[in-house]
Amino acid sequence: MDPKKIICKCKDVTKGDILKAMEKGATSYKDIRDKTGAGSKCGKCEKKIRKFMKKHAEA
Ligand code: FES
After folding, report:
1. Percent of residues, the chain, with pLDDT higher than 70
2. CATH code of domain 6-56
């Protein structure tokens, strides 16, 4: 995984940013949106973000 890869083009949010937000306690897509702004514009990245979160969620 490349942490510098942009996952939300509208807001320039990278995979690394999402992981960081998750480390800080974001557990849902809504948390990510509130904390990073990802998904708050066109919403096209929602699916990608949800999938990414599922893959990286700690049990
Ligand atoms: S790509 Fe994420 S809001 Fe548009």
Report:
1. 97
2. 1.10.10.1100
The answer to whether residues 17 and 1 touch, using CB atoms and an 8 Å cutoff, is no
What secondary structure letter does DSSP report for 22?
A: H
Helix, strand or coil, per DSSP, at residue 57: coil
Using most ligand atoms within 8 A of CB, pick from 9, 29, 32, 49 the residue to mutate for ligand 1. 9
What ranges do the domains of the chain cover?
A: 6-56
Instruction: Verify whether ligand 1 is closer than 6 Å to residue 38 (CB atom).
Output: yes
| pTM, full prediction | 0.93
**Residue 18: pLDDT band with limits 50, 70, 90:** very high
